[in-house]
Amino acid sequence: MADPNPSLLAYPEFPEPITAAILNQLFTPRPEEIRWVWRISSSSEARLGLLCLLKTFPILGRFPAPEDIPGLIVEYIAGRAGLAGLTLAMYPKRTRARHRSEIRRHLGIHRWGAPLNLSPSRSLSASWRVGPICLT
């Protein structure tokens, strides 16, 4: 078994160095992710931002600011999603807030302290099957 990457422990950060293998393994958007992004957002810049947050959130456990996502990762995701040449410079703050909610919903993640809205008709065992909890 390989030793874990220290940059992914305790308080996760982006892997260093960012190699082709890491880009391929961690940041390649799956076809269903691209379809979902196209349904959720209409502008190219917003689609790139949504896809970058979708791919980075599971690695970091939080949503990074667009300027904190390494350019190499943004370029890679953009190229794989047919959005080559775009950057996150025009990714609006209000849109980012909506996208964070959409990603949490898509991944089944509930904010810490958020009500779970469980139906009284659900069994106790079913009510315990909820997704991970996000602190951001």
How would you describe the overall organization of this protein?
- This protein is mainly α.
- It has one domain (15-112, 122-134).
- Helix content is 47%, strand content 3%.
- The protein is built from six helices and two strands; from the N terminus they run H-H-H-H-H-E-H-E.
- It has helices at 20-27, 31-40, 44-60, 71-80, 93-107, 124-127; strands at 110-111, 133-134.
- The protein has a two-stranded parallel sheet with strand order 1-2.
- Helix 2 (31-40) packs across helix 3 and helix 3 packs across helix 5.
- The longest helix is centred in the middle third of the chain and has 17 residues, at 44-60.
Order of helices and strands: HHHHHEHE
Alpha-carbon distance between the two ends = 32 Å
Shape: globular
Portion of residues within helices? 40-55%
What is the total domain count?
Answer: 1
Strands side by side in the biggest sheet: 1-2
Low-confidence stretches: 121-130
Name the beta content range. Answer: under 5%
Mean of pLDDT: 84
H/I helix tally: 6
Supply Rg: 16 Å
Find the structural class using helix and strand composition.
Answer: mainly alpha
Q: Count all strands and give the number.
A: 2
Biggest sheet, open or closed, and with what strands and sense?
Answer: 2 strands, parallel
